[in-house]
Design brief:
Low-confidence stretches: none
CATH topology: Arc Repressor Mutant, subunit A
Mean pLDDT: 85
Shape: globular
Number of helices: 6
Number of domains: 1
Length: 121
């Protein structure tokens, strides 16, 4: 019962719903989520911790980076998340997705430029 209460508490915050909506499309690191939601990193980390404790997201470490994704949890939790995410879409979420796409494009260009510089030197 307490587990279920934690799930609903985690889902009761707009920022956490925005994070889940972004993760619906795939794995992201904290910096990606910060750029998309346009807020400070400690706030995002707090919300990610809450979502993880509720079993709604998983993380994996790659070097100094931590990547987050929707949890491969039990069927009920997964169905609940998908049902909620399918029903929410508004201007804020559209802005989040737009900022994320722009950030990921800039990030990719930066990686390409770094790789090119390494090839030249």
């Amino acid at each position: 019962m307490k587990d279920l209460i934690n799930v609903f508490k985690a889902l009761s915050d707009e920022t956490r719903l925005r994070i889940l909506k972004l993760l619906e499309h795939g794995e992201l690191c904290v910096c990606d989520i910060v750029a998309a939601i346009d807020t400070i990193q400690p706030k995002i980390s707090f919300h990610l911790s809450t979502l993880k404790e509720a079993g709604l997201i998983n993380d994996r470490k790659e070097g100094k980076w931590i990547h987050y994704r929707l949890a491969d949890s039990d069927i009920f939790r997964r169905y609940l998340i998908i049902s909620i995410l399918e029903r929410i879409d508004n201007e804020i979420l559209q802005s989040d997705r737009k900022r994320l796409a722009e950030f990921l494009l800039k990030k990719q260009k930066k990686i390409i430029n770094i790789d090119r510089a390494r090839l030249v030197s």
